Amino acid sequence: MATVETIDFDTVFGEIAERLTKDHERRIKRPLVRMWDGDWNLVGEVYNEISAKFTLPENETGIGTIELPARYYLSRWLTDVDARSTDNVFITVDKDGARWAGMLDDLVGSKDDTGNRIVKVIFKSDFEHLKHILAYSNPFLPPEIQFPRLWLLFAYPPAFN
Question: CB of 102 within 8 A of CB of 125?
Answer without folding.
Answer: yes
